């Protein structure tokens, strides 16, 4: 979590502090770490530029993103089939209830109203889920030659390093899902789909992350 403190001369500064320690005390984090905001932000940006936005890394992560997209598409098709089957069953139940009303076989209107409300609510939920599954996803490049990978890596690195600080933060948020800070190092990780999208369409570099398999920086690095 980001906190504000006061240094010498009354100057305010911002720093990242351990949220667990602040909220739950030593039982959650016995050795809390506080890092100046500007310092950690600079280290993360440098780590992304030097270790993530490289030709080899981008090529590997693009392949992973494509594999995940294919698996995801298959799963979405199965989910859509199940939702539409459930919708058909719900419509049949609603029709049966209205038929019972017309024939006078149901007299408990309170029970009837509650059952119809439940069915209609679930029908609306299924329709919303089905519509969400139909949302188009941005296309991913299917391959990168060595020359293309080098060009894309240089372009993304330039965008990241030359951007103003506010835009750099958006880029980081688009690529990174977690930063774990230790006494001597920080490990950053994020979804491979975000990298694949940035490779395919650099204008999406600051886009919203997807819930997919994560990349992680090399273990022999300070970031």
Structure description:
The chain is mostly helical. Helix content is 60%, strand content 11%. The protein is built from 7 helices and 6 strands. The strands form 2 sheets. The chain has a 3-stranded antiparallel β-sheet. A hairpin with a 4-residue loop joins β4 (178-181) and β5. It is flat. It starts with a strand and ends in a 7-residue tail after the last strand. Mean pLDDT is 80; it is low at 218-223.
In brief:
A hairpin with a 5-residue loop joins strand 1 (2-6) and strand 2 (12-16). The longest helix is centred in the middle third of the chain and has 49 residues, at 55-103. By secondary structure, this protein is mostly helical.
Q: Stretches where pLDDT falls below 50 for ≥5 residues?
A: 218-223
Number of strands: 6
Termini Cα gap:
19 Å
Order of helices and strands: EEHEHHHHHEEHE
| Mean pLDDT score | 80
Annotation field: number of helices: 7
As laid out across the biggest beta sheet, the strand order is 1-2-3
Q: State the secondary-structure class.
A: mainly alpha
The biggest beta sheet is recorded as:
3 strands, antiparallel
Helical amount among residues, as a percent range? Answer: 55-70%
- The geometry reads as flat
Key features?
223 residues, single chain, 60% helix
Task: Spell out the blueprint of helices and strands.
Layout: E1 2-6, E2 12-16, H1 19-24, E3 35-36, H2 37-52, H3 55-103, H4 109-133, H5 146-162, H6 165-175, E4 178-181, E5 186-191, H7 192-200, E6 214-216
Antiparallel strand pairs: 1-2, 2-3, 4-5, 5-6
Helix pairs in contact: 2-5, 3-4, 3-5, 3-7
């Amino acid at each position: 979590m980001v906190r504000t403190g006061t240094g010498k001369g009354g100057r305010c500064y911002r720093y990242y502090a351990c949220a667990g320690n602040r909220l739950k005390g030593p039982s959650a984090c016995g050795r809390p770490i506080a890092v100046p905001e500007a310092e950690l932000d600079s280290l993360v940006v440098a780590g992304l530029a030097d270790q993530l936005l490289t030709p080899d890394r981008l090529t590997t992560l693009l392949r992973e993103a494509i594999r995940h997209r294919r698996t995801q598409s298959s799963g979405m098709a199965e989910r859509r089939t199940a939702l539409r089957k459930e919708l058909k069953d719900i419509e049949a139940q609603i029709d049966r209830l209205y038929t019972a009303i017309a024939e006078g076989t149901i007299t408990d209107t309170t029970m009837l109203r509650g059952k119809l409300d439940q069915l209609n609510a679930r029908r609306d939920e299924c329709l919303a889920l089905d519509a969400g599954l139909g949302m188009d996803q941005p296309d991913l490049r299917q391959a990168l030659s060595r020359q293309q990978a080098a060009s894309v890596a240089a372009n993304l690195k330039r965008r990241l390093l030359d951007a103003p600080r506010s835009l750099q933060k958006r880029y980081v948020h688009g690529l990174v899902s977690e930063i774990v800070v230790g006494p001597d190092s920080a490990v950053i990780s994020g979804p491979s789909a975000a990298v694949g999208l940035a490779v395919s369409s650099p204008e999406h570099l600051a886009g919203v992350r997807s819930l997919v398999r994560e990349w992680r920086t090399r273990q022999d690095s300070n970031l």
